[in-house]
Amino acid sequence: METLSRMMTRAVEGGLFSGSQVGSLDNNLLHISHLLFADDTLIFSDANPDHILHLRILFTSFEAILGLKINLCKSEMVPVGHVPDLERLADIMGCKTAQLPMNYFGLPLGAKFTSKAIWDPILEKMERKLAGWKRIALLGKWLWHFGNEREALWRQVILSKYGTLQGGWTYGDVSMPNGVSLWKNIRKDWGTFSRFLSYEVGDGTPV
C-alpha cells in the first residue's frame, strides 16, 4: 500500500488529479488526496473525468508493476454534494456508486453530526467501556499525542482549522458553530491537563 500511496502523491504533485482542501484562509491550507486504512484506501478527487481516468491508469500501472489486483468491483464512488454525470465517472473507474450518509468502519459519514440519533450507538459502546476517570485520561492522552506527534496527519488537519497555542502543545478554541464536538471537548480539558505539565529548557531539540 505504501507504493500505491507514493504513486498517488506523485500524481497529485504532477497535476494528474486533485485531492481535498482542508483548513481556512486564516491558516495554512492542507491538501489530502488519500488515506490508508489497513487494506482499504479512501481517495479524494474532484469530478473531472480526466482526473478519474488518470486514477484508473495509475491503478492499472500499479497492478502491472507489483502483480497485485485492485478490486474495483468492490469499490464505491461516493459524491459529496451534487455531482453531475456520476454514473459516467463510475464507468470510467469501473466501480459502483453509493450515497451519503453511510457507515465506514462503523462510523457515520455524511450524516448530520449534530443529530444525537446518529451517535447514540457509538456513544453507548464507549460509555460501557469508559468510566469518568477513564474519559479524562483518554482526553489527556490525545492532548499529549497532539503535543508530541508533530508530523501526524490528524494534527496537521487540526492546526489548519484552529491554529496552535502554547508552543504547539495545544490548539486554538473551537468556537465556530460548525466546530467538531470531539475536538471541543478535548480542548476543554486543556486547563486540567496543563496543570500537570512542567517545562525544562533544553538544547533546542524536540521533546
Automatic annotation (TrEMBL):
Q: What is this protein called?
A: Uncharacterized protein
- Where on the tree of life does the source sit, at the highest rank? Eukaryota
Originating organism: Fagus sylvatica
Q: Which InterPro entries match?
A: DNA/RNA_pol_sf (IPR043502)
